[in-house]
Design a protein that fits this description.
- The structure holds two protein chains of two kinds.
- Chain A is of the alpha/beta class.
- In chain A, helix 1 packs across helix 11 and helix 5 runs parallel beside helix 6.
- Chain A has twelve helices and eight strands.
- In chain A, strand 3 and strand 4 form a beta hairpin.
- The longest helix of chain A has 16 residues.
- Chain B is of the alpha+beta class.
- Helices cover 54% and strands 16% of the residues of chain B.
- Chain B has a two-stranded antiparallel sheet.
- Chain B is elongated and about 55 Å long.
- Classes of the chains: A alpha/beta, B alpha+beta.
- At the A-B interface, helix 7 and helix 12 of A face helix 1 and helix 2 of B.
């Protein structure tokens, strides 16, 4: 079966697109699928360092598109997971070096060789975003439970629909359960109500993600990481499995129960 | 937020975030920023005043979003109607 193309995008920068791409890629490849992660953030490449493959780059996306090398030569094989590959972005060019048509052509060339093509989109709504979304079968929008990030996600949902790539699915990243319980962070239900979008994953804020990126070894490789587990769940849902959503925000302490009692006027 | 704030029934910062989001998204989706809505309201008052007597201060205009439907809601009390009702009370 030819590969499905999944684009991970967000509008706002810094919400965890690259982390999500690397981790979902690792999770899918761990389950035995043939995966290629493509960094579409030309000029600001980062997927290579998050995946820990930065030392092995020879050619990049722009080299392939401009015919300086074969696709095969730009594919970096991950040594930990033989079915995981990376096509890095060019670092010294900009988004206009590639067109949406180039991306569609490249994806078509890769489809027969893989099960999944994951595209890490740059932030923004300009050319880089359109490049990343052009070949997509599925679009995943990453956001954080924060007013600015959710607002940008709403804008992206509209643009994805305008490109006829919707409906997109949502990854709510960096949720702090404590803060949600305290009433100081938007809950998953709030974000879903505001955005009217289907959820594919809730990822808790987790120090292991930063430690993992320090080492270039995505958290999904670590069986003990909570965030890693959330990303593996997302991969399973992409595969069509029904995976119940872990109650990241639950586990009410005394304080939460008391607060709810007060809000509801004494009724428990 | 702390327990005291909660006991006083103050809205949590998450609730504040949600209502601010809802407000900003309604305007984003309609591509009609709040300032423009105010200008629209003033124009509306001007046009309506040419034909009927209204109380400009009582005019309310707002945007809502329900079930994928953007709606502009104007609430325009007629001054003359209120004046007529007054002697009855």
């Amino acid at each position: 079966m030819p590969a499905k193309v999944v684009t991970i995008t967000s509008g706002k920068g810094g919400v965890g697109k690259t982390t999500a791409t690397a981790n979902i890629g690792v999770a899918l490849a761990s389950a035995g699928a043939r995966v290629v992660c493509l960094d579409a953030d030309i000029g600001l490449r980062n997927l290579d360092v998050v995946m820990g493959l930065e030392n092995r780059i020879v050619y990049d996306l722009v080299d392939v598109v401009e015919g300086r090398c074969k696709l095969r030569q730009a594919l970096i094989k991950d040594k930990r997971l033989p079915e995981l590959h990376l096509i890095p972005a060019a670092q010294t060019r900009d988004k206009t070096a590639v067109s949406p048509k180039d991306m569609v052509r490249l994806a078509e060339e890769m489809r027969p060789e893989f099960d999944w093509i994951l595209i890490d989109s740059p932030a923004g709504i300009e050319r880089g975003f359109r490049n990343a979304v052009a070949p997509a079968d599925i679009v995943l929008i990453v956001t954080n439970p924060e007013v600015s990030a959710v607002r940008d996600a709403d804008r992206i949902i509209g643009l994805v629909e305008a490109e006829e790539k919707g409906p997109a699915k949502l990854i709510l990243n960096r949720v702090k359960p404590e803060m949600v319980r305290r009433g100081d962070m938007l809950a998953t239900a709030d974000v879903l109500e505001v955005l009217a979008i289907e959820l594919i994953g809730v990822v808790p804020e987790d120090d292991t993600v930063l430690v993992a990126s320090n080492h270039g070894s995505p958290a999904a490789l670590d069986g003990k990481s909570r965030a890693g587990r959330a990303f593996r769940d997302i991969a399973r849902r992409l595969n069509g499995e029904t995976v119940p959503f872990e109650d990241v925000e639950g586990g009410d302490g005394l304080f939460g129960r008391l607060a709810r009692m007060v809000r509801q006027g004494g009724q428990v | 937020m702390n327990l005291l704030q909660r006991l006083r029934g103050e809205p949590s910062s998450a609730q504040a975030a949600k209502s601010r989001l809802q407000f900003v998204l309604v305007h984003d989706r309609a591509d009609l920023p709040p300032g423009k809505l105010e200008a629209l309201k003033n124009d509306l008052i001007e046009v309506l005043s040419r034909h009927i007597e209204i109380d400009p201060r009582a005019v309310q205009i707002s945007l809502t979003h329900e079930r994928n439907q953007q709606r502009l809601i104007a609430n325009i009390p007629l001054a003359s109607a209120r004046a007529r009702r007054r002697p009855l009370n």
